[in-house]
Specification:
alpha+beta; 3-stranded antiparallel beta sheet; 81 residues; 38% helix; rod-shaped
């Protein structure tokens, strides 16, 4: 490999790494805003959130309050279900 070819290859590697880092940073920002709903600007704390489906009585833990489906009722942790 000649010296000019090495320079071109080195430049290409730098461009690819920079592109990957920019993409990673943008993806990371979206994930930090709302990990399970990346299309929103909603900020949601990462805390286990128990909720009850009023139609079936099913109680389930969700990773954030934003992940609780519409219509489900939030329940107190450790409550008698």
């Amino acid at each position: 490999m000649t010296a000019p070819q090495k320079k071109i290859l080195g430049g290409l590697v730098v461009v690819l790494i920079a592109t990957g880092l920019i993409y990673w940073d943008e993806t990371r920002k979206d994930t930090l805003l709302s990990p399970n709903k990346p299309d929103t600007d909603e900020v949601c704390i990462q805390v286990i959130t128990p909720a009850r489906n009023p139609q079936t009585g099913e109680v389930r833990d969700f990773p954030t309050p934003c992940d609780v489906p519409e219509g489900w009722e939030l329940v107190e942790p450790f409550a008698n279900y």
